[in-house]
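In keeping with the milestone schedule agreed at the kick-off meeting, the structural modelling team has produced records for the first pair of proteins. Each record is given below as a sequence line and a C-alpha cell line. The laboratory manager (R.T.) confirmed that both were archived under the project's standard naming scheme.
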Amino acid sequence: MQCLLLWHRGALGDLLLAGPALMAIRRRYPRARLTAVGHPERWGLLARTLALTDIWDGDAAVWADLYGAGPLTDPLLARLASFQTALIFTPEPPAHLMARLRQAGLAAVHWVPSFAPDCLEHPSTLQARRLAELSIPVDSEPFRLGLGDGDAENAMPLPGSGPWAAVAPGSGHPCKNWPLSHYFQVTRALAWQRGLSIVWLTGPAEEAMLPYVQAMAQAQGHLLLDRRPLAQVARALSRCALYLGGDSGLTHLAAAVGGPKVLSLFGPTDPRIWAPRGENVRVLQAPCPDAPCARGRKIPCPEPRCFADLSPEIVLAAASEWGLG
C-alpha cells in the first residue's frame, strides 16, 4: 500500500478548484494512504470525500527544515519515512522544496499547478493536463463534497424547514464585493415577495462590513452565521435552495456541496478562470466594457465601479429563471 503526501497550502477556493485533480489521484490510487498538508480546517472539508488518512498543519514548525539548507532533522525524517510519493500544489514549481523532500527519502515528488501565475487558464484545466503527464486521468465532472452526518459542533445550524437562501457578501478583496445596498434589495425581495428564509454568511474577511451586515440581517429578521466552522457552513449551504455571492471561497464551497443553485457575481476578476463549474452554477458578470480588469491576482481598480451596473433587478431575474426569485 502506497503512502502519498498531498501538499496544498492555498486558500479555500484554490483548494476546492483542485477538487477534480484530487479525486483523480484518489481514483488512480484507490488503496493508498493519503495524507494532506495545508490548512487543517479547509482540508477537513475534503477528508470524507478523499478518504484521507491524516491531515497535517502546513504551518507546523516541523516543516521549517524543508525551506532551509542544513541537514534534515530527525523529527522531519521520521514524519516522512513512510511516504513514497508527494504531489505539491503551488502556482510555480518549488524547486527547493521538492529537492528537500527527495532528500528526505521520497522516491517521487511531482509538481501540480494550483493556478497559473498569469491567471490565463482555469486551474482545473491546468491540473488535468499536468496529471495526464503523470498517467492520472482527470474526470470532467464537477467536484462534489461528501459531508456525512457530522458531530454536534458541526450540526445543521439552520432552523425550520426553509426554503433557505444563503448570501455571502464578502471575499478576499473589497473590489470583488457586490455592493451591500444591492444585497439588501435582493434579500428583501427574496424574503418578502418569494418567502425565502435568508442566512448571511460572514467570516474574518468580512470584519469591516460586519456591523452593516448585522444591522441589515436584524432589521429584516434574517439569520446571521458569523465565523462558524467551515464544516458547519458547508452543512448549512447543503440545505439552501439558492446561494448568492462573489468571487470567493464560499462560492466554491456552495457549488461543491451540490445543494443550492449558485449565482456567482463577477466584476474585476475573470469568471472563465475563477468561477466554479457545474450545471447548478450561473455566473453573472458586471456589464462593464473594462471588466474583467484584473491582472493576474492584482485588481487595478480602486473601487468596483463595474458592479454598480450589475443591478439587483438583473440578479433577481436570474433567480426567477430558476423559480427562486
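The second protein of the pair:
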Amino acid sequence: MKTRAAVLREMGAEPPYAESKPLEIVELELAGPGPGEVLVEVGAAGLCHSDLSVINGSRPRVMPMALGHEAAGTVADVGPDVTSLSVGDHVVLAFVPACGHCGPCRAGRAALCEPGAAANAKGTLLSGAIRLADGSGQPIYHHLGVSAFSDRIVVSERSAVKVDPSLPFETAALFGCAVLTGVGAATRSAQVKPGDRVAVFGLGGVGLAAVLGATVAGAAKVIGVDRLDPKLRMAEGVGATHTIPAGEGAVDAVREATDGGAEVVIETVGSASVLAEAYAATRRGGQTVTVGLPDPSEMLEIPATSLVAEERVLRGSYLGSCVPADDIPRFVALRAAGKLPVDQLLTGTLALEEINGAFDRLASGEAARQAVVF
C-alpha cells in the first residue's frame, strides 16, 4: 500500500528549515503488518525535540528515516498473533516498544526494554522488520518504532496502547511522549509527594507536562524556569505557583523561593549547563531528575562530595520511567477527571506539508507542542 511520509535523508541541515527543507514529503511503499504488528491510520502526530535532534544531527540515526514518534490513530488492520488490539481501536503510540519478556520489562521498567532499545537504534520495528521503502525499493528506516509523520504506519503491537475513542487525536498524541515523559518524571521517577517544592527547568511540552505532574501529585510549590516569557505564562496556566526567567540569578531565585532549594528539580532542556543549574537549585537531601538529552559530547561537572555529604540523588528519567500500557490509561483517566489538563500543552496544529517551518518554531522556542493533523 501507499503512504505519505516526512523522510529525512541527511542530518545536519542548516536552519531555517522552512528554507533548507530537511524533511521531504514523499509517497512510500508500506508493507502490511507482520506477526505481532498492526496497521494504524494516523490521526495526529506531535513535534518533539527528539525529532529535532535527529534533524540537526545531535542524535545520530540511520538514514534515510521516516521521522515522528509521538502519535495517536486508529487500528486499520492487525497481523497474525495480535491479541490486545482490534480493528477500529483508537491507540496512542509509545516510542519504546516494550517486549514484556526481558529483564527490565519483567522488573516493571518498560522504558529500558532491551530488545526495544536495540530495535530503535537499528531503525527497525521490534521484530527487526522494516516495513517502509521508497519507489526504488530502498528501505526507509523507522524512527523509534513509530515513524509518526505518515498517513499510515505499521508498528509493533507493543508500541500501541488502546485509549478512549472520545479523546481527540491531537490531544491523545501528546500522551505518547510529552505526557509520559513529563508527568512521569514527576510522578514516577521523582515520586513527588504532597507538600514537596518542585522546580522545572525548561518549559517546552515536556517541561509543562512536568509542571502538570508535580501539580497533580500535590506539590506545595511548583516553580517554572524558562528564558521565554510566553512559556512562563503557559506554566502559570497549568499550575505553576511561581515563574522565574532563566539565566543569571535563576538558581538563587529558586533557592530563595524554596527556602534553600527544592526537594525535586526536573531538567528538560537537554543541556549539561542547565542540568548543572538544576542540580545547584536542589536542596540537601533532594533529587535532581533529568529527562533532557544533551549532545553526546557534553559533560556534566558537579561537586562530587555533595552526593554523599548532602545525600543528593541525581537520576535520569527515560519515558518518565513509565510503563505505557499502565500509565497512558491512568493519565488519560486523570485528564477525564479534570486533574490533568493536557490539552493546554498544544500550541498549534498543522498539515504535513508545513512540517519544516513548524520545526523552526520548535527550535526557536516559539511553540511548546505542535501536532500534525491528518
